[in-house]
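ARCHIVE CARD
Drawer: 12
Card no.: 0347
Subject: one protein chain, sequence and derived structure
Cross-reference: see card 0346
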Amino acid sequence: MRINQARRAGRTYPDADIHTKPSKSRKSAFYQSQPSLKLPKPPLMTTTTQPFPFPSVYNFPPLFSPQPNSTTRLAQLQKWSSLILSYCRHYRLWRLSLIDAIETPLFYNGALNRRLALDDARDVIDWMTRKEGDERAEWVGGDGTKSLVWIWWRKPEEWARVIADWVEETGQKNTVLTLYELTEGDTVASQEFRNIDPTILQKSLNVLVKRGKAQVFGTEDQQGVKFF
């Protein structure tokens, strides 16, 4: 019935006969044939955000069910990781509450009426926290609840490099900037790190401090940073 509804709506399922359920071999072939998603180059910061352009794999029903074959499962985890990173980057989401996120289009495809279960979403995030997932996620807190997670579409080390490049390009070396100027000032209006999460900013600045490229001083509410 769902396939017939999809046909009337003009939707098609890649690499699958619309009259039949895709076989296991076809499922595997589909995952293997799909290229890994690449994070798009971010646009200049604007006040409006266009809807996220979901990739074609998002409309393939088996994506929402754990695959038993190890090779296919790895490809599936990679697809989910790329999708989560791209989605969070698009909407500038720094952290996810899985319980809340499971109800959003990120994990629920309303057109297919398919949802990634909460436990399965945790499995995906767990994979993203490990080296094989490029450590692109980090659970918040050590209580073992696994309900809140940092999503590193840029790691703190990567943000540090972005900020350092901006400092170099704009001649800000040996200049003292308040954290407000660094994240909300006019000079950073078009920068990707504008309005960055304060915790991520601190982690990124700490990277620069350890490298001898910055010094942070002042009280918590009135901190400044000098770049070298």
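Annotation on reverse: The longest helix spans residues 70-91. The mean pLDDT is 81.
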